[in-house]
Amino acid sequence: MTYPIRPIDESEWPGFAGVLAEGFGWTPQPAQDERFKAATEFDRTLVAFDGTTMAGVTSVFSLTMTVPGGRQIPVGGVTAVGVLPSHRRRGVLSALMRRQLSDIRERGESVAALYASESLIYGRFGYGRAASELSYRIDKHRSAFVRDTPADPALRLRVVSPAAARADFERLFAAVVTRRPGRYERDQHVWDGILADEEHDRDGWGSLRAVLAEDDRGVRGYALFRTKSAWDRDGVPSGELRLIELEAADPAAYALLWRNVLDRDLITKVEAHARPVDDGLVALLADSRQLRATWSDELWVRLVEVDKALTARAYAAPVDVVVEVEDDVCPWNAGRWRLTADTSGAECKAVDDEPDLTVPVAALGSAYMGDGLLGAQLDAGLLREHAPGAVRALATAMAWSPKPLAGLVF
């Protein structure tokens, strides 16, 4: 069967949200539903119809995202992907994904990105795991820092109401957003979600709390967190703290904010999620074994137009390779591309030359933000190298520090 696909208007939101609720098995609170609706770009929604039934849905956020080198480019932020359980394995998702990628290309966005609810799904549409994240729990009583921890006597901490300090958070984040690949600019809807603090937003934790690190010139960092009060049967405090976000403009502010989070009274455990794999806290802890971390995939990236995407980012080392790209979803990408790049810039153009390596487009997506595993994919037989050393040369050039992290699900 074929399913007609089109965008919806605001009046059709209840049906769109209903497909997502059914597909994800969740029931949002009215306020959560309204926030999502307010953030939705209705001209970038897509719905596959089975008669009058919405069988599958998806949408896109128009993001401005940082790529290696600090440049910001327009990126199609894929979101709200769902298919009714009654319509699985009928080609609904495939039709939506293909149409969506074509639309993203027409918008002039050479890169698409998403968070995968299930990591099995999106590789077949050319998305590659482009960033990873750490989640960890720290025993407060074993969280001493190394002796040479950065400090600045001009810094001071100030406890603030999160709602009242929103402008400070926004300014600080805007100042640091270009430092790490994958970070994207936040509009008012994103900040509304971050600072939402109704009972249903707390997930069993306490109200949202915040602390600023500042000096006489202004704010240099902030931490957002929630706590959960608890006591054991002997009256000993055993509270927990969940870090929502910690951003800092410099190492001294970063260390001071972490120290404040870890030193909170009546807290014994601190947990943090969506932290970069090269998080500075790992180096700050005197006993790094106390940071019990778990790894997970984070951002997935798809090159919608290979030449434009590869030209838009910076490279860590010179490279000159002919890459044969395999792409059966976006056929305009399939073919041979010569990438010539160094630390000053890059050029990517179609050629007829013999390839140095052959790669599926998802492999380039996985390497795009600077954290790819091209060497591991070669070892696994997922890439074909025709010129010895070509994969190593490309992997070296595309690697980047700091490692990528989007930092917030969209």
From TrEMBL:
Chain residues that bind acetyl-CoA: V81, G82, V83, R89, R90, G91, V92, L93, S94, S117, E118
Q: Does the keyword Transferase apply?
A: yes
Xref: InterPro entries: Acetyltransf_17, Acetyltransferase_Eis, Acyl_CoA_acyltransferase, Eis_dom, GNAT_dom, NAcTrfase_Eis, SCP2_sterol-bd_dom_sf
Entry-linked Pfam families: Acetyltransf_17, Acetyltransf_9, SCP2_2
Q: Where does the record place the catalytic residues? A: Y122, F410
Query: Entry's Gene3D superfamilies?
Result: 3.40.630.30, SCP2 sterol-binding domain
| Classification via SUPFAM superfamilies | Acyl-CoA N-acyltransferases (Nat), SCP-like
Q: Does the keyword Transferase apply?
A: yes
The protein's UniProt keywords, in alphabetical order, are: Acyltransferase, Transferase
Which residue range or ranges hold the N-acetyltransferase domain? 3-152
What's this protein's family per the entry?
Answer: Belongs to the acetyltransferase Eis family.
Subunit and interaction comment = Homohexamer; trimer of dimers.
Protein name, entry field = GNAT family N-acetyltransferase
From what organism does this protein derive?
Answer: Nonomuraea spiralis
